[in-house]
Amino acid sequence: MTVDSGHSTAEIRILQRCISDLVSVLALPATWSGGEPSQIVRTLLESLPGMLHLDLVYVRVNDRVGGSPIEMFRVGTGPPEEAGAAEIGRILYGWMGADPEIRPQRIPNPAGTGKLTILPLRLGLNGEIGVIVAGAARDNFPGQTERLVLSVAANQALIGLQQAQLLIKEMAEHRLADERLRLEEDELRRSEARKAAILDSALDSIVTIDHEGCITEFNPAAERTFGYRRADVMGRPLAEVIIAPSLRDAHRRGFARYLATGEATVLGKRIEMTAVRADGTEFPVELTITRIPSDGPPAFTGYLRDITERRQAEEALARVRSELAHVTRVTSLGVLTASIAHEVNQPLSGIITNASTCLRMLAADPPNLDGARETARRTIRDGHRASDVITRLRALFGKQAPTVESVDLNEAAREVVALSLTELQRRRVTVRTELAKDLPPITGDRVQLQQVILNLLLNASDAMASVEDRPRRLVIRTDRDEGDQVRLTVQDTGVGIDFHSVDRLFDAFYTTKTGGMGIGLSISRSIIESHHGHLWAAPNDGPGASFIFSIPHSAASGRP
Amino acid sequence: MIAAARFVAVVDDDESVRESLPDLLRELGFTVQAFASAEEYLESGAIGKTDCLILDVSMPGMSGPELQEELSRRKLATAIVFITGHSDENIRTRLLAAGAVACLHKPFSEAALVSAVNTAVRAA
Fold it and tell me: Could you give the angle at the alpha carbon of A88 between the alpha carbons of A84 and A93, nearest 5°?
């Protein structure tokens, strides 16, 4: 290769300068490493004009995150400026077009006088990152080496900007992650606070225990109820603290069995048991135990409620109910007074008449001994009849403790029918009994059950009081159902009942009758339920309604 | 005073009354027939010849007062002695107002019965 020495000297000088510029340009990233895009732009503006003797440098970096772009320019060796950059950018883009091509263009100097040759350099393959515009008034701009230096500078800037953007994105992600973490921590704290508030403000005692049965939480309600301070019971075995001494062994056994077999009799159910306070007094509580859903060894929460007051209310209610039952009996007595008088007077009448006849027959001449014997026999029979009535009445209306005995429901029904027959006849009600043969006995209080039957009979009779267009027919039926129940049905041909309000029929004091007390059915139902049975109403195929009760028979209930 | 073979009908659903009362009335010298219901009495041939009707107030089916009405509807002025196990003064007053000779509450004495039946037979 031959080299023109004069020419080559100038060329060598240019190349030397070019290399030195390139080295400077390649060194630029060191000054902006880790910096922000605006710092990169500023560095470009500070280094390029001196290096390449430029009269104007304009840099625009699009903000790809969506904010406003960075636009700066520098005129000659003046300071880099932001103010007015947008105006200069607008003018430059007017010449270059929106998608600048890398070719020189001679334009009026947008930042001064005279003309400039500008060379746009895209940042990014399509200028998506931004643009660098270098401008010089001299004619020899841009030379080949200047183009090289500028394009290398643009590349370096591009890499720097991309890194900066990555950094920004990363930092944003970090910030986001940090924020999320902080929110989660806040939420956790709030949730803990809420839980603590629930524990603190709960009216029920809440006690948690670990897998060894030792107390791990004891809320303020528990402190109030049991009379311990939380600090005094934490870590102590639950059994020793709040469970009545008589139940402690059972508790320990149940707990051990659950841990060994997973078999639980008390989990997730409401149970009633006896608890004990710090001062040793025992009281009834309702207890629900749930297993705390978590990994690791099982832990449990117990919710305890002092039900002393509820118990007292229940007992009071039972007392009132018993009083009401007595009142109903006495009320029924009032209703039946006439009937009862009739029932007693009937045999008394027979006694007096027969005795009178007997005396006359004995006084005759000759005495009619056969007739006298017959009338005396009738006298005795009627005397027994009167006595039986009195016995039945005493059983039915005396207030006595419920007695449990084997009851033949047929016999009980027959007695009630016998006692109320006159009253029913007076009300023009015909009674038919359809009593099942071989009805197994039931276990219960015969008098109470007869109260119920009497009540149903009187109700049925009341329901037919206004019926004139059809027979007032009452059927009392006993039978066995398919299972282990003995059933008694009282069916009438009365006005029927509104089955929308059928449940209310059994409410105490709900009545459809103007003269009724309204406690009959409610009491009747409670009596039947105390015999483990059910009392309900059902419509008939024809007019009227049926009231039915069923009670398990003695063999089925397994009681004497 | 008591004419022989005066006819007394006893209508009562209670069997013990139907067996005891006729015996006593027979001892007192009456001819007696007992009926278990008002309907049975109406269907018998006895209504035309009854000198005294001893009638229970409450019975299944037609009651005593309804029989009283029915007889009066048929223009039969039968003398009626009511007997009842219910001591209801209102009913008694109403029955007497409707023409009954007497209304006896069970249990009644022989003397009360004799007096009531004699009054009835005299009225007949």
Answer: 145
